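dumping this here before i forget
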Amino acid sequence: MDKQRPVVITGVSRGLGLALARQFAARGFSVVGCSRDARDTERLQEELGNKHLFLPCDVSDARSVFDFSEHVLSEFGAPVYLINNAALINPSAPLWEQEPTDLASLFEVNLLGVCLLIKAFVPAMIAESSESFVINLSSGWGRSTSPNVASYCASKWGIEGLTKALATELPNHVSAVPLNPGIIDTAMLQSCFGESSSDYPKPEAWAELAFQTIIELDERANGLSLSVPSM
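structure:
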């Protein structure tokens, strides 16, 4: 895979996004990432150095996304991997008890944000005329359901459908994959599972498997619902 082209990762300041950024950087890729909090991106920039670029960006805001993409495309060119990782989960509660503002924020980040990043980067990936991948992080809850996380399930089922439809629209050299990361001990999981989340792998160990899964992708993966192997 072409390490001269960047890997773009959203939600890069913590959890799976942070672990992936560190893993790709350690393997020689240039990593470009975004997070809402400028202090988080500044800390990551200092940690990983000037080969990489980390900027504040609200993925649910079109102007913020397009400003981010213009900066990235002018400095680094089209990404070899666009990894849409940024996501929110609802406070655990039955759907009828969830606040409308929470529902709106969740769908704006989890679905609209992915659409905006695709709109911002995919035309350049198509124009590049070499192999590249849109990887939208799904979830086990994008393929099954549980109580008290209905809105999150809906958003991740949406990611599955969105990505599979996108896969039918892309030229042969660009592939789209909904990728289930598995059950990982992140703050998001802790909000649902409590202390039992510690029974699951940490993001740092997971990222090694995720990296290998991603770099082994080829055009045959286009539109397939894939998962990072369990540890």
